[in-house]
Amino acid sequence: MHSRKPFYLFVALLFALGLSASIYRGIEHHVPFLPGEQVQSWTVDAKVSFQGKGEPAEVSFSLPQDPAFEILVENTTSPGYGLTISNNEHDRRAVWSTRNAIGKQDLYYKVTLIPTGQTQIAAPDTPPAVEEYLWPATEQTAAEKVIDEVWSRSASNLTFAQQLMAVITGKDRSQNVELLLSSQSPTKLFVRMLHSKGIPAMEVNGLYLEDQRRRQQLSSFVEVYHKQQWVLFDLNKGTQGRPNNLLLWERTGRSVLDVMGGVNSLVNFSMLQDTRSALATSIDMMVNKNALDFSLYQLPLEEQSLFKSILLIPIGVLMVVFLRVIIGIKTSGTFMPVLIALAFIQTTLLTGLIGFLLIVSFGLMIRSYLSYLNLLLISRISAVIIVVIGIIGLFTMLAYKFGLSEGLTITYFPMIILAWTIERMSILWEEQGAKEVVMQGGGSLLVATLAYLAMSATWVQHWVFNFLGMHLVILALVLLMGQYTGYRLLELKRFKPLAGE
User: Fold this and answer.
1) Which of 155, 189, 311, 350 could form a disulfide with 464 if both were Cys (CB 3.0 to 4.6 A apart)?
2) Integer angstrom CA distances of residue 335 from 236, 331, 486, 491
3) SS in 3 state form for 43-58?
C-alpha cells in the first residue's frame, strides 16, 4: 500500500502557497480583502508665483517624498514652460524653464496622495556626517552654557533633544536662550545646538493636511537621528512625534523653492480630502510601479469580463464535489449544475429556475415522441438540440410580447448541456422511472442553486478575480475531498437501523 504522506504534503503545499500568495498580494499591493472598501485620499495643489524680470527664468520646486504617503497621480500646469522632473532617490524636484518671463507668473503642481500607515521614518545604519556650527563670538559663550547644562541632564541623543526643546520653547527661558533666539529661529537654534554635540539632525518642511483649506504654508520641523530612525520635533509647538495629518514635503535640507530670473516668489498650498475605491486605488498604484505584469487587470476589458465568469467555475466545482462526495446528493451529469449556476448569474435565480423547468419539461415531451422514431443517437441528440433552440426562441419571443424583460435572459442557458440533460433524463425515465428523474433533476437544481449562491456572493467574486492564489486553495480542497471514501451524510439514514442494533 502506497503511503499517502507525499499526497498530503502536496495538498498542504498547494494550500499554503495559495494562501501566502493571496496574503502577499493584499499586503504588498494593497488589494483590499473585502469588496467595497474605501480609502481616504488627499489632493494637494501647489501654486508657485513670482514676478518675471523679462529674462530667462528657471524655477526649481521640491516635490513630496514621504513614506507615510503614496503618490497616486501627479501633474503640472505650466503653459509656455519646459518641465523636467528629477526622480532622485532622496531629492525629487520639478524644474520649470522659459526663455522670457515677464510680469506675474503662476505655475501649478497637483498631486493625489494615499496614506500608507507607515509613520516611522527609517534612517541609514550609519549616521550621516554632521558639520559643527561655528558660533559667532557674541553667542558662543551663551550657547556653550546652555548646551553643557542640558547635556548634563540627558542620557542619550534623544533625551538631549527632548531637554533642549523644553529649554528653547519653555516660558521661563534663560537670558542665554533669549540672546540666542534674538538672531535665529527656534528651529535653526535647535539644529545648531544638536550639531554642536555631533548629533545628526536636519531641518525639514511639512504641510498639515486639513480638508478644504486654501493658501496654506509649509511648517518647519526638525528630524533627529536616533537608533536608525528619524524622530520628528516641532519647535513651533514644542511637541515630539509625527501627527497623522502631516505630509513631509522637503527632507533634504535644501530650499523648497528656488527662482532664477524672477523676484517676489511665493508658494501656496490648497488641499482637499476625498474617498475613493480601495481596489481602484491599488490598481492605480500597481500601474505606477509597473506591477501589473502578472495581473488580469493588464488584459482588455472584454477579456477581463470573460475571466470574471470563468474564474467562478472552480467555486461551482468545489460546491459540486462537496455536495456529491460528502453530502451524497445525486445530480444529472457531473458538472451540469455548475453551468446552470453560471446561467443563473445572468438570468437571476427565480427566472433561471422557471426557464430551466420549462425548457426541460417541453424538451422531455418532445423527446418522448422522438423515441418512437428509432433514430440513431447522434441524430436524436441533434434533433433535441434544435428543439431546445426552438423552445428558447419561442419563450424569448413570448416574454418580449408580454413585456417580461427577465424572460429575455433565458438565452444564456447552455443549449448543448440542456440537450444532453433532456436526453439523460429521458433514458433515466425509461430505465428507472419518474422517481429517479425527479431525484436527480431536483438534486441538480439544488446543487445549481447552492453553487449559484456561492458564485454570486460579492466577496467570492472579489476573491477569485483579485487573489488568484485562492484557486490553489480550492484545488487543494478538491484533492483532499477526492480522498474521502466514507459514508455520505445522506447515506447515514439507510444504516441507522444497524446503529440501533
Assistant:
1) 311
2) 70, 9, 22, 21
3) EEEEEEEEEEEEEEEE
Pick the more confident residue, 33 or 421.
33
* Tens digit of each residue's pLDDT (9 = 90 or more) over 333-345: 777 888 888 888 8
CB atoms within 10 A of CB 62: 22
34 Cβ neighbours under 8 A, 6+ residues apart: 459, 462
Q: What is the amino acid identity at position 314?
A: P
The pLDDT confidence band at residue 307, using thresholds 50, 70 and 90, is confident
pLDDT tens column, 292-301: 656 777 778 7
- Select from 490, 390, 480, 484 the least CA-distant residue to 7: 480
Whose grid coordinates read 516660558?
171
Whether 449 and 331 have beta carbons less than 8 Å apart is answered as no
Contacts of 484 (CB under 8 A, 6+ apart): 325, 326
3-state secondary structure of 402: coil
Residues 6+ apart with CB under 8 A from 451: 315, 316, 319, 320, 337, 338, 341
Q: Give mean pLDDT, residues 257-266.
A: 89
pLDDT band, very low/low/confident/very high, at 136 (cuts 50, 70, 90): confident
> 119 or 261: whose pLDDT is higher?
261
Residue 164: φ, ψ to 5°: -65, -40
Compute CA distances 302 → 97, 112, 297, 343, 355, whole Å.
Answer: 43, 29, 11, 19, 27
Residue 350's CB is within 10 A of a number of other CB atoms, namely: 10
In terms of average pLDDT, the best of 127-141, 311-325, 406-420 is: 311-325
pLDDT recorded at residue 15: 92
Q: What is the mean pLDDT of the chain?
A: 83
Angle among Cα 326, 343, 470 to the nearest 5 degrees reads: 55
Taken in order 406, 409, 411, 413, the sign of the CA dihedral is: negative
Q: Which amino acid is at 250?
A: E
Q: Which residues on neighbouring strands pair with residue 221, listed in sequence order?
A: 204
- 130 near 223, Cβ under 8 Å? no
The whole-angstrom separation of Cα 181 and Cα 172 is 14
Query: 476589458: which residue's cell?
Result: 301
Query: Lowest-pLDDT range, 259-268, 269-278, 372-381?
Result: 372-381
- Asked if 14 contacts 472 with a C-beta cutoff of 8 angstroms, the reply is yes
Record the cell numbers describing residue 355, joined without a space: 426557464
Classify residue 222 as exposed, middle or buried by CB count within 10 Å of its CB (0-12, 13-18, 19+): buried
